[in-house]
Fold Tyrosine-type recombinase/integrase.
Amino acid sequence: MLIQVRYLQQRGKSWRYRRKVPPALRPILGKGEIVIPLGGSEAEALRRYRKAHAKAEQQLAVAVAHPPQAAPGQTELDRFRLAESQIRDWGLDLDWAGEDGPEELARDVLADSIVGKYPADAETGDPTGVSVEDVAVLRALRLGSRLTRPCPSLEDAKRLYDKERVKGDRKKRLELERIFRLVGAVVDLSRPLDRLERQDAKDVRDHMLDGGRTAASVDRYLNVVRAVINHAIAENDLACKNPFMKLEVSDGDTAIPDRLLRRPFTDAEVERIAQQLHTNAGKSLWLIWRLLAGTGCRLAEVTGLRVADVHLGHRIPHIVVEGHKDRRLKTKSSNRVVPLKGDAHAAAKEAVKAAGSEALLFKAYCRLGGPDAASAAIGKHVDAVIGKVSKVGPTHSLRHRMADKLGLAGAPDGLRDRFLGHTKGASSESYGGSLEAWLEMSSAILAKALSCRIL
């Protein structure tokens, strides 16, 4: 043959089309080369060549267009555990360390059966396209107890925290995913925990700050990352350190949580916002605002109230703030009884009447994402009255206002903490005793607090 035709090869008395597959595409096609018989003569091979070449090109094009998909969410530690489970299911000895005998023979037979599923490379004889799952099983068969357990990765740590700490809380899970997307943009989440360095932590911090987030938000995000890694280290008995510990975000006020920098509303602002809501918002938002202003409760505590939590017929009207199937509470100390006075008492009456036969006081907002929706809606009306003020939070500023009023009324720290559902140690626990005694004390101090003006 005077003309050299690419991929055309004579083998003995026959001719064939032979073309090597690029290494990156071999796992997809499951072979190291494409071989197509072309006949017993050169003339016949040349006639069939164009069709064979087109077929090979098509196979490669399909492989390029459809790359292999990794098993969804599978980590190296996952594959190690699956391989270990498979070894156990086969009845093999997990403590085998390579000794000769029936155990070794059984392992060799099983390994050969796995390798036999895959085509062999024409030149090396090695299997091609072996899945990562089968690679893990083969290593477990060959090495036995000599195989080292992989160190958990960042992804493993995140999943463990999600399972054992988040426990199905959708809001917390979304936040966890959001934070680790930021981490993953800097450090591959497949990175083992024992290979994380201080510079990695600094790079993650800087990336978060570069996104325009406040130092307080970044510090909160890093607290989640710290908790995730610490939990994985403890639960897996790891000896490595957490490089995110004691990582400073910034100095001064910028690291203080935003909610603590917000000023309280003045009484005049509260009244103007109430009028704005009454005129331009739905009745539920107006009633929620009045209850927030008169109790100092958190927004989710009010939107999650049931009709049964409102005790209007008691000698001292009050609400019971407690967790239930439709609403969880922030902390254990959030469970409490709050007296109703003045406009908050009137708002509670109107809310119970408006709820009718419903079990929930504010059904539209006692749901997943309900408090956020209420906050956003109220925030628009707050902005309409006082403009966008950075140090004013739609509901946190109401809690600061109540805290200031209680302070002006002379409420001891422990009583104020219990009233607001704070956890401040032993002082707040000193106000135990009966419900009646608590209502007497808290109602009296609330009446005095509401008479104090915030200007």
About this structure: The chain has 19 helices and six strands. The longest helix spans residues 42-65.
